[in-house]
From TrEMBL:
Keyword ATP-binding: no
Protein name: TetR family transcriptional regulator
Entry GO MF terms: DNA binding
Pfam (any one): TetR_N
Occurrences of domain HTH tetR-type (ranges): 7-67
PANTHER family membership: ACREF/ENVCD OPERON REPRESSOR-RELATED (PTHR43479), ACREF_ENVCD OPERON REPRESSOR-RELATED (PTHR43479:SF11)
Residues in the DNA-binding region annotation: 30-49
Organism field: Cecembia rubra
UniProt superkingdom: Bacteria
Keywords assigned by UniProt, alphabetized: DNA-binding, Transcription, Transcription regulation
Length: 233
């Protein structure tokens, strides 16, 4: 089969799978339905992807590629300090996650798989068809690509003076990324009105960004309580 035809069919199946996974969820989507919606035979769909697990790993790789594009677009902007890049990254990641919910869920699901994969006993809990997927193997090679760009942003910030120099590059970036992921995950609970919790999305985001910036700049300092002089008379 000519490579151009194969590429078109692969792209079509991926697009259909992404649409169905988004609308129905991974568990409720079948390979039969993907093939039917794509207008191809079930047998042909298995020529491109061995099973649904393999297809989902291919979708996950595409999700990482799209997220890498977000990182890359920020990093290649001229005249931005490292601190400004990381601030932009926080906002753009949140936009990406909210606009591409299925992609973001696939990325977080892969991170969960990696928690198991890095432990010998944990690998037994991963579906064997995932481990056999060629796309899973590709993900093992590229899933740190976003992190590498983020680390360069921290490095740039230290060089241009916008980020304090004593910070360790890798630890700093992955800590910031974990904060951004956590923020995005908690937007739902925060948005749900709770009378006893005085926090709202409209004031949390600027507060979150400012706190992140203060941490990176080193402007957060512990304040010693001032002694209060009192008189009995």
């Amino acid at each position: 089969m000519p490579s151009s035809v194969r590429e078109k069919k692969t792209k079509l199946i991926l697009e259909v799978a992404i649409k169905l996974f988004t609308e129905k969820g991974y568990a409720a989507t079948t390979m039969d339905e993907v093939a039917k919606t794509a207008g191809i035979s079930k047998g042909l769909s298995y020529f491109y992807f061995k099973n649904k697990e393999d297809l989902y790993m291919a979708v996950t790789k595409k999700a990482f590629d799209e997220l890498k594009g977000v990182f890359r677009d920020i990093f290649k902007q001229k005249g931005r300090t490292g601190l400004q890049m990381l601030t932009d990254l926080a906002s753009d990641y949140i936009k990406f996650a909210q606009a591409n919910r299925m992609y973001n869920d696939a990325i977080l699901n892969f991170m969960g798989i990696m928690q198991l994969y890095t432990q010998e006993s944990g690998r037994q809990q991963i579906h064997p068809l995932i481990l056999e997927s060629e796309h899973f193997q590709k993900l093992l090679d590229i899933h740190h690509d976003c992190g590498k760009l983020g680390i360069q942003m921290v490095s740039q910030g230290i060089k241009d003076g916008s980020i304090r120099p004593e910070l360790q590059l890798e630890v700093t970036f992955y800590t910031i990324w974990s904060m951004i992921i956590g923020y995005e995950r908690l937007t739902g609970p925060v948005a749900f009105e709770e009378k006893e919790v005085k926090i709202h999305l409209d004031n949390w985001k600027p507060g979150f960004l400012k706190l992140m910036q203060d941490m990176l700049k080193g402007t957060i300092q512990a304040q010693k309580p001032q002694a209060v002089q009192a008189s009995l008379f």
